[in-house]
Amino acid sequence: MIAKMEADERRFTERVSWECRARLLPLTLEPQSATLGMHQAIGYDISEGGVQLLSSRLFALRSNLLVEMQTPEHPEGIQAVGSVAWISPSRSANLWCLGIEFSDVGDNALNSIRTLMRLSTTSLNDSQPDTR
Predict the structure, then answer these.
(1) Looking at residues 32-39, what average pLDDT do you find?
(2) What does DSSP assign to residue 72?
(3) Cα(90)–Cα(121) distance, integer angstroms
């Protein structure tokens, strides 16, 4: 029997909570775009397939972005290309939750993301109380 997927859950890869600083660079030039240049963002969860970010800039759906994630574990940064898959207003004024679906992740970046996911899963398991 196939497990039923919830209507709002469209992810095909496991994701983990992970806070990071990120920068977003639009890769497509939209007419009269006010979003040129790098923009700061904060990451909240990540998977091999994408990342959820909080940004003060609103990007159009399907906008292609270079996502540069910064973390102490990877001081050189992790870069991936993706597109805006969904947008949601945040509870904070003038901030947007963006779902970025990766379309081009190099081998080094993918290995870094997998390492971060393992570390996040391990630290989450270690912080849970033993209920035995």
Answers:
(1) 63
(2) T
(3) 26
Domain extents in the chain: 15-28+36-121
Two tokens, residue 131: 């209920």
For residues 84 and 97, give the distance between their C-alpha atoms in angstroms, rounded to a whole number: 10
Residues sharing a CB contact under 8 Å with residue 80, sequence separation 6 or more, in sequence order: 51, 66, 67, 69, 102, 104, 105, 106, 109, 113
Type and span of the H or E element at 17: strand 15-26
Within a 10 A sphere around the Cβ of 11, how many other Cβ atoms? Answer: 14
| CATH class name, domain 15-28+36-121 | mainly beta
Can you give the pLDDT at residue 119? 82
The conformational region for residue 97 under phi > 0 = left, psi -120 to 50 = alpha, else beta, is: beta
Least confident of 20-29, 33-42, 71-80, 117-126: 117-126
Which among 64, 85, 86, 68 is positioned nearest to 77, based on CA atoms?
Answer: 68
Signed CA dihedral, 71, 118, 19, 99: sign only: positive
Residue 77, sorted as left (phi over 0), alpha (psi -120 to 50) or beta, turns out to be: left
